[in-house]
Amino acid sequence: MRGRRIKFYKKWMSFGVFALALTLPLTLSGQESPSSDIQKLHDLESAIQNAEKLLHKYPDNDFAPNLMFQLSELYVKRATLTFQREMFVYEEAERKLDAGLIDTVPDIPYLDLAQAIDMSLQILQRFPAVPFRDKVTYRIALYYSEQGDRVKAAEYYVRLTKETKDPDLLEECYFRLGEYFFDQKDYSSTIKYYSQVVESWDNPFFDMALYKLGWSYYNVDDFAKAISTFVYLIQDLELLKDVEAATGDKSKTDLRQEAIEYIAACFAEYGGPYKAGDFLSQRRDKEYATQVLVHLAQIFRKRNFYAQSIETLTILLDFYPLSPAAADYQKQIVDSYELADDKEAAENERAKLVEKYSPGSLWFETNTDETIRARADTVAEEYLYRLGSEAQLRAQTEQDSLQYQQAIGWYKFYLQKFPQAKRAHKVQFYLAESYYDIEDFESAVTAYHEFAVRYPQSEFGETAAYHRILAYDRLTQHRTEVDSSDFFLFNFLAKGESAVDIVMARNDAQAHLLQASNDFYIFYPFSPWAQGVLMNFGQMLYDIKRYDLAHEVYQEVMNKPEDNPYLVQAYFMSGQCQYKTDNFEGAEQQFTQLTRLFPDSTKYVDPANKLIASARFRKAELYLTTGDTLMAAIAFENVSNTAPDSLIAERALLEAANHYEKLGAKAKAAALFEQMAKRFPASKLLSQSLFKAATLSEEIEEWGRAAGDYLQVYKLDHLTVLAPRALMAAARCNETIENYDVARELYGEYANTYITDPDRVMEASFKRAEIAYNQQDFDTAGEEFKSLLESYNKFVKDGVTPEPFLVANAQFLLAEISFKHFQDIKLTPPVVRKLKRKRAAFQQVVRAYTSAAKYKVAEWTTAASFKIGKTFEEFGQALLDSPRPANLSPEALDQYNKKLWENVLPFKEKAQKTYEANIRNAAENNIENNWILESRKRLAELRNELDLGALQGTPPADSYGANQ
Asked: Strand pairing of 500-503 and 487-490?
């Protein structure tokens, strides 16, 4: 049967008594040289001509069908050779195009088998009963297929299935039709033709047809048939597994592997893990059962269906618990739980792996392959390490003692299973750390000790030794009992193994802590913790009053000054130890050296300086207790000039300044406060000191000096609380000494810097403009007053309303500027034009004063009202003072004056009403000021003027101005 499959591929070539030996290939491979091709083409043309002549001469002869069939073969050879030559030319043109030698893209050649097809069709038409008709039909299908017309090819394959009885041709036709419809994704037709192919299992297309039949069932979601088909294929392939021939473009191995993959894919779509388990449970002895389940688990994992992947792997383990790959399957279960972010389940499965596949387990004893064992051993070790470390991490995160206990259990189990593993030293260290974290310090120090004994070369040795000290320290803190017995301290500071010092520790825990601290320094003298350990060691000796030993420890710290954060503390404590042993001279030298070597170490320099300078400072304080403030001030000044410590000197300087101030020596006090800037520029009290100096200078009317100190306060840091006050005061002092340009500049800087304080911004802006106003720079003043009003309006718009007094004042002064401009317009010829200007200016002034009154500030409301009345008077007076027409007779002049008075009278009356309203409103609001007094005065004079004018019918004589 196998021979039949192999021989079939050549059988169809042997028919026909006149078949020619093929001299040219039908494919494009093996192309020869152009000269050889020319000769072949020449020979081929001769053969074709001879055949055509023979056919033409004997068209109906019995051998005609055979001759026509042979001629169609010759046409194929010629077409093939022509195509090869054209391909050669085409490829040459392509190379030239790529090289840039030509610009035209060549046309791709076409294999033209039209003559062969036509000749074959003529055979069928002219000789329908020819014995080899099916072979001709088969060739027509091949020719169409070679030309790429797969539809026509399929048509003739279908015809062939109806015409031929040849089983080999039928099987190939069914296979080719199955291939065609498979590529068209017409799976129903595909199934129809492949099903006929697989009816005979010994044909050469059987395996590929069976493979694609299963694939087709898969594509139409008929998973049950797909599975059975693929299983059938696998079984067939296993029967033929010794056959090396390929099937189509796939090897037997490829088909088998893909069949397994598609079975797994079918189960992924149809029934899932449990269906696969049921199906394969009776086939678990088959090799493919394992492979299907493995691939099914992979499919689910790639799709992120971790639960299904885990179920599949569980089935695998149920089927094959002692399989060499069982540990790997268990690891995949762990990995899937981790990918599903089910940490708890992953941890449980890791524990299972450790239990079932680590050394000592049944699986481990059954599988003796060292490679497999080593792989499982590696995973088990890693998982056991993770179980402990992750439990410890959770414990640390959640502060959970149960998790610590779990970690401790895993760590102990690890050390039992893997005592020689590379990470065993870490586990021993982490075990000790866990004991420490649950405050089981007895177990912790034991575990640290075991670590030191078993793993002396570990990189954690230093850390473990240090943490052992910490554990003993905590034990000491927890041990409240006092056992004042003598303890031995061996090899103190590495003086010798026989060296023994007797100490009276509080209890045995502290004695062990002292010895552990001493030993740590002996074994790890260059540790970054060494100096800290020594300092704690010295402090314990200091506390138990072994000042002599403590002094030696601190001296050891002082002997290593490089990058030593404890150096200054060691100096200080060394001095303290000498002080405690009544070595006052040594203590003073030690403290003096400390202040010289570490002048910036405030924490220790300050107390050291206090010890050195305490006598002098206390003497100064004693003067105060006796009420001699002057001597105290002098003494504090001397201390400030001589104390080696800057903080004491600064403090003494301030004390001296304050006491001189109390004595009324303001100039002296101010001078001392000013010294802060020169002597202690980094002092936190510098701003307060300079501000105080400036205040005192103001009190003694040294305005320039005060201004300088205030300005220095501002420049130190304009964000401090004193800075805005200082800047405003500096401007005020400059204004006082008539340094107006500087004052204006400082007021302006204030307004631009401290915009968050609306009232002060208004004040600074007003003062700046006011100076310009007082200097009669009305243009500048006017612009700045307007800017102030804009700022005020913006503050109001933003929901902040500053105090309106200065705003009203600014508006009033703007009106005053307008009033001055109004006064400057004289009604001189040409009068009409000047009068028009005067009237416009009059209206502007009234509006400006009215705007000032709108702020409802009593001072400026009354002032504005008074000035409005004054403006009406001024305008009326300007009319009265205007020049009279020339050459008027006395009678005409009198008439002119009467008419002029009639025009002026409304302005006078309006002024009168304005004064009356101002006085009335002031009375209603209990306001009394100079503007009201002036209003009363003007009202009385105006009434007299109006009464006199009413009697005369003309302006009173004294109402005429210079233009009369």
From this structure: antiparallel
